Amino acid sequence: MIDRVRRNGSALVLAAALARTGLTALRALSPGGRERWERKNHAGRTVDLYAGPACAAAAAVGTARVRPVVGLAVLAAGTCGAYDDVAGAGDDRRGFRAHLAALRDGEVTSGTVKLFGISAAGLAVGAALKERPLDRVLAGVVVAAHFVNLVDVRPGRAAAAVLALGAPGLLRAGPGAETAAVAMGAAAAVLPDDLAERTMLGDTGAHALGAALGAAVVAGNGRTGLAAHAVALVAAAALGERVSEAARRSLG
Q1: By C-alpha distance, which of 204, 247, 210, 238 is closest to 88?
Q2: 156-173 burial by CB neighbour count: b if 16+ within 10 A, else e?
Q3: In the beta sheet, which residues pair with residue 40?
Q4: Its domain of life (predicted)?
Q5: Alpha-carbon distance 150 to 194, whole Å?
């Protein structure tokens, strides 16, 4: 028990330190110029996107220490999110149904690239962590169809969701708990700046942290748990606009 708490605490602190260091370094360096990193939030305030790459890098490094394939999947999810942050900056379409509809019309949107890229990363995690084909598919769904990006509509919502969703995972033994701790540490490090509307996670951070949480669920559950999570997450994705609207209204 003491060893488990120590391992989880170490994973959380390391991820928090990496994310905070990354955020500070990116602000100081501003690769490509500050304008490239600035966006207007829902209230019209200028915020930066530094928290996203900082969290993605911290989560990738932290989860790779637990299981290398998970670290690669987290990095892939963050990279897909970064592509959407840049290429899809002016695209108002939201939700997988809108992007799949565009694909049917022959348009490959940045959201479509993100959808298929993160799905592939999820299947890679499933293939590495599970033996049976059905379990691998369920694992892929859990990693790809995460909840975090749906609530990233107001300051602090996504990071707070990571903390709330990751906390129960700390009660489990094994690599799932450490993976959840990594996601929580990275989210906690940037939450104050996110709430203060100085930065935002963007798709980069939300998808990386969501993939880490999904991997924690995969590592800590058998088929029944995976199926339950997969059904819940697919339902949330199908009702994406309602979920996002509820997040907008929460906490004022």
Answers
A1: 204
A2: bbbbbbbeebbeebbebe
A3: 46
A4: Bacteria
A5: 16
Residues listed for the chain = 252
- Asked whether the predicted pLDDT for residue 229 surpasses 90, the reply is yes
CA–CA distance, 111 with 99 (Å, rounded to integer): 6
- For 28-79, what is each residue's pLDDT tens digit? 999 999 999 999 998 999 999 999 999 999 999 999 999 999 999 999 999 9
Question: Phi and psi dihedrals of 197, rounded to 5?
Answer: 60, 40
What whole-number distance in Å separates Cα of residue 12 and Cα of residue 24? 18
Task: Work out whether the CA dihedral 97, 98, 102, 103 comes out positive or negative.
Answer: negative
- One-letter amino acid of 183: A
Answering whether pTM is above 0.85, one says yes
Residue 34, CB-side half-sphere exposure with 13 Å CA sphere: 6
